[in-house]
Design goal:
With 320 residues, the chain is an alpha/beta fold. It is built from 9 helices and 13 strands.
């Protein structure tokens, strides 16, 4: 799909606390509730980055298309709030809870709470012991990081080069991304700085500014999402680091434009739209005990200027 064919809805603020969304419209996957009345799904989101916003929109749209009711909550990157949100979903007696976790180390508590109430957990982006959960739609985050590392390896062509890492929030997706990236680098690529920016653009700009001042000979930067990458680009450029090539993650419309004009060198597309759609349809199918993949994978693809026009849609479009 060409860049001009992408349409983006204006991002909306994620709902704070718990709200009920009654879904209607046509049946998309043939799914039906495991009991009388519509299936009631809970969705506990991890934060308010563009990924989280697009994931929520995709889950809302797909629930609506499948006659499901959806209860949503936002954990605001707070593990304690995530557990509180799980408990609130249990009190609502939902049929299953879809969770985009903020910290994989707290998942056991989340799952245990829901299990005691006989409410299954379905995970997005990461997984857990398959025997403990209803299912998951995972992004091979280590593989995503490795794709960016491989691009740098090819671009460096054996030269001794320096790279900085601007990570996200420790504890979940960022750790896997960064781990896949750093382990995928060849010996001629040296990581000279590695610092989290909590998936916050303003923080990323500050971090990037410090990195380029400490390492004016920096060649590349790996940034754990595109919102932070745009902030890092501004910081590098302002401090004389226009030559620093940025590799990042997501595949949003804005990033595709940045690939074309040279602000970014590469990104890895892992569509929030696809993840959300699979999360809802697979959750409903697994509740019905239909044959679907228990642990499904969202496709990931390296995107550069040369193939930006064929990148998949990242976020639901208007009217989807």
């Amino acid at each position: 799909m060409s860049l001009t064919a992408h349409h983006r809805r204006t991002p909306v603020v994620l709902l704070v606390g718990i709200c009920l969304l009654l879904s209607g419209c046509g049946l998309e996957s043939g799914a039906r509730s495991a009991h009388d009345g519509p299936t009631v799904l809970g969705f506990v989101n991890g934060g308010s980055t563009e990924f989280h916003t697009c994931l929520r929109e995709s889950i809302e749209n797909t629930a609506r298309s499948n006659f499901a009711k959806l209860v949503t909550a936002d954990s605001h990157q707070d593990a304690a709030q995530e557990l509180a949100n799980i408990q609130a979903m249990i009190a609502r007696h939902v049929d299953a809870i879809i969770v985009q976790t903020v910290d994989t180390t707290v998942l056991k508590s989340d799952i245990d709470q829901a299990d005691k109430a006989h409410i299954p957990i379905f995970l997005t982006s990461v997984s857990a012991d398959p025997s403990d959960i209803l299912g998951a739609v995972v992004v091979d985050l280590k593989g995503v990081g490795k794709l960016d590392a491989e691009w740098i390896e090819d671009d460096a062509a054996g030269r001794e080069v320096r790279v900085a890492v601007i990570a996200g929030a420790p504890g979940a997706a960022s750790d896997l991304l960064v781990g896949g990236f750093t382990k995928g680098l060849p010996a001629n690529v040296k990581v000279v700085a590695n610092q989290p920016a909590m998936f916050v653009a303003a923080k990323a700009r500050t971090v990037a500014d410090g990195m380029i001042k400490a390492h004016p000979d920096l060649d590349y930067a790996f940034v754990a999402n595109e919102e932070m990458a745009f902030a890092a680009r501004k910081a590098f450029d302002a401090a004389g680091g226009k030559k620093v090539k940025i590799v990042t993650v997501n595949g949003t419309d804005e990033a595709l434009a940045a690939l074309k004009d040279g602000r970014f060198a590469a990104t890895v597309s892992n569509s929030a739209k696809d993840t959300g759609e699979l999360a809802v349809t697979n959750t409903i199918s697994l509740l019905r005990k239909e044959k679907v993949e228990k642990i499904a994978t969202t496709p990931a693809r390296l995107i550069t200027r040369s193939n930006a026009d064929t990148a998949p849609l990242y976020c639901p479009s208007d009217g989807s």
